[in-house]
Specification:
The protein is an all-alpha fold. It is about 75% helix and about 0% strand. The chain is built from 21 helices and no strands. α3 runs parallel beside α6 (about 110-130) and α13 packs across α14. This is MFS general substrate transporter.
Length: about 500
Amino acid sequence: MAASVPEAPSHEASLKESPATVDAAPVEALGELVDEAKLIRKIDLNLLPVLTVLYLLSFLDRSNIGNAKLDGLTTDLNVPGANYNTSLAIYFVGYVLFEIPCNMILKRFNPRVWLPTLTLLWGITSVAQGLVSDQTGLFAVRFFLGMTEAGLFPGSIFLFSMYYPRRVRHYRVAIFFGGAAVAGAFGGALAYAIGLMDGVGGRRGWSWIFILEGCLTVVVSLAAYFLVPTWPRSATFLTEPERAYLLRRLSNDSDAADVEPFNWDGVRQALGDHAVWGYALLFHGFAFVLYSISLFMPTIIAELGFASWQAQLMTVPPYALAAASIWLACYASYKASIRAPFIIGAAGVSFIGYILLISTSTAGPQYLGVHLSTAGVYTGNALLLSWPAENVSSQTKRAVAVALQISIGDLGAIVGVLVYRPDLAANLYRTPHIVAMAYLVFGSLVAGWLWFWLDKENKRREVVLSDRSEKGVEKEDGADDVDARRKLGDRDLRWKYQL
């Protein structure tokens, strides 16, 4: 199938094809030809639906093991006790190891081919997950599933950063991440329906969950080769005036329109920037809760006293609330032009949910706790995952920073799935829930520190620029504005961090 995919240039090749019109007219003149609001909506239509669907499938294929467990996965494959938790952790080992390499490949390659290819590979792996016959096979396929899924999320976030001005970017990332919550709701209902196929073709219901959902991913991946856009300079859905306006608009806003091949200096800058590590540690705190609640929700609900088929269906409302919360909170954050307090507030809502889980003994309040903990942590993640994409420059540094955030964050996911082990399941996972609350506090503290430091740095830069202006110094080190910005990236005094 890959041979029939339309060819598109690599990122470096597309950089050589910059339209002359980009530098031929000021943005104000181009603005007379292009309606920016309509252009953003056009970009939305070409990026958001296809990438959100791919992420929905990614989250569905990684988390449906929680639904499969209720249908007898661990019993049939003879996966005793905490070995199930090990199978969950192995997925994240593959995910973490290939996160940064995948984004480095994307920077040098082309999203139209790279992202659908990853989708095709993990779809095939998901099908294989339904064909395993023992614990060893499960461990192996979980590692390859993590490896093949590793590049989609950071790659999509980087692609967003190449199309959207910073002020509108995080709301689009929130819509994209909302696919994870929709996947949870969709996955519970779908798992219940597929589970009714138990015995068809001599296979158990849990096997059909992996096979059918994996086949769905494969089919969508083939269509994605024709739907996922390439870089803006080569995007066929843009007219020449739209492309020129977008690149000029992005050039004034950030580095997205710059001609920047992959470079190792950007990698070193990312690894040496304490704010980049702050974004990573922030996700580390939230990822523990995100994946532990996602992967163990069916089990937690079943232990409230419900049958397995009821637990499958009862996972739908918490995820539906999470999706609504994501979009409402992120829209409010977008309007307020600030996210840190919303991240901290989301952690607080999730914290209250865990208080209900550990302090009450009846199903009603505990089920409400599941709703609050899920809505809070999903909303917080939707807000924090776009932060480095908006605040880190240059392009290579940002590609590494986005991938590093996911890599370090998912180490928290590994800890989470190992903490929620059978010998700590007493009192409805009371001890793991307390650890999750500690992680939420940690994440809130990191968010507060980033908020404080970024605001302080913005104010410091304003003072320095004001002093330079008074002294008649307009440029740094004698370089012109473009050269200075490209060299310094987010270290440029004129770069303003998004809070």
